[in-house]
Give the backbone structure.
Amino acid sequence: MKDLDWNDLRHLLAMARGGSAAGAARALGVSHATVLRRLHVLEQEVGTALFDRLQTGYVPTDAGQRFIDIGEAFERALTGARREVEGQAAGLAGPVRFTTTDSLADGILPDILRAFHERFPAITVEMRITNARLDLDRREADVALRPTHEPPPAWVGKPLARMDWGLYAAPASIRARGHEPAGQAWLLPDGHLAQGPIGTWLRERIGNAAVAATADSFVALRRLAENGTGATALPCFMAHGTGLELLEFPPRRLSPSLWLLTHPHLRHSGRTRAFMDHVAQQIRGWRERLEPNNG
């Protein structure tokens, strides 16, 4: 077997992660035909099939899994080397890959990012807005701002504030249905949002009350609450200035900390440090809205 081509291994990993040539093509930004051609070249090179083609998708053979393991080890080594080089860079120019939730991106970050651009116009903030946790080890992001009760142990950073919750409804909904949760129609978090402590607690709190809608976005849930569709749980800062009225605070133990995190190799990078220092400083001005539950 000749030297392995990293580009062929990249396509192999994308196929394994996507489960199909179409999924790999979308992840890599190439054509379906290119993925199949790369896979065929690699199988010819190693002399055996690397995937079983099933109706449900592509499943790695034993040989395929071995090469997937090799590819992942190679990917980690390349990513680690890149991070070490970038971590030593002191220049305040270039990209910062930043991930956060839709609620923080909508409610807190616009003014913070505007001020950051004014201070550091040569740094480009590449945002990934998702309620799912991205993998900093695989370079899906450089910096994460996320509410969590337990940050990943391999990442470094600090908690900036507590993020309190409230149960909110529009005034018209309260007049029509009262303040008791059982009398309200409810808007419930779904997807990744439903898996957190607040989603579990809310379903127990409302019992058999009517559910008007679900969504995997607190921005969408807030908008539905504002137009009177029902009541919902929101981070308290999201209700500020909306006209929504507080029904009650959930227990403080459900309030996560708002963590600003990065990969250890990047914590000394000039642009990463500049971005994290700026965000941390600016978040202090939001603490009153983030932490209103003094009970």
